[in-house]
Amino acid sequence: MSRNGPYVVQGDDVEVVDADGNAYVLDRASFALCRCGASTTKPFCDGTHSRVGFQAAEAAVPESAE
Ligand code: FES
After folding, report:
1. Most CB atoms within 10 A, among 26, 49, 56, 59?
2. Per residue in 6-47, pLDDT tens?
3. Is 34 left (phi over 0), alpha (psi -120 to 50) or beta?
4. From the CB of 35, is ligand 1 less than 6 Å away?
5. What's this model's pTM, rounded to 2 decimal places?
6. Atom number in ligand 1 closest to CA 48
């Protein structure tokens, strides 16, 4: 993930499906999922987040050490 950009997904055995369960064709092992909502190629990022000034607020919370 980039700070104010997409979620970056990496892996050889990753599947992305739509609400009906249909899989998107993925032609690479790394791709970016839009989280700003402005992409014209959803669910994938097309770089529009930069033009719209997307500011992400969330961050992962580290698991506490046990
Ligand atoms: S995160 Fe890149 S276009 Fe939405």
Report:
1. 49
2. 999 999 899 999 999 999 999 889 999 999 999 999 999 999
3. beta
4. yes
5. 0.81
6. 3
